[in-house]
Design a protein that fits this description.
Length: about 110
């Protein structure tokens, strides 16, 4: 628990030092969650969210694995089936099939 000091206003939100904000932004860009940043910096989750909500995570560090049905869906696509037909054949939602095929098919 933090104690009241000169860097904290009497009322309102506590001031988060610029060095801590910079560290929070770096952690967020590296892929840390809001909760992980709050735990590491001893800053309230709401304050972390306020400062890093617009910072995008670097998803290149954790690429999404291709679904196990991708190969089968690509074969169906090459055979001339539409995304809706593939979704029905695989028992999946058509928007997910379309999104995955668009992402993984060059």
């Amino acid at each position: 628990m933090r104690t009241i000091s000169d860097d904290m206003p009497a009322r309102g939100r506590p001031v988060v030092p610029a060095s801590v904000i910079t560290r929070m932004i770096e952690m967020r860009r590296a892929g840390a969650s809001i909760q992980q940043i709050a735990d590491a910096t001893a800053v309230a989750k709401s304050a972390v969210h306020r400062h890093v909500a617009s910072v995008k995570r670097d998803n290149r560090l954790l690429p999404a694995p291709a679904p196990e049905w991708l190969g089968e869906a690509q074969a169906m696509l090459r055979a001339g089936m539409t995304a809706n037909q593939i979704a029905k054949a695989l028992g999946l939602h058509s928007s997910r099939v379309y999104r995955v095929l668009k992402k993984f098919s060059a």
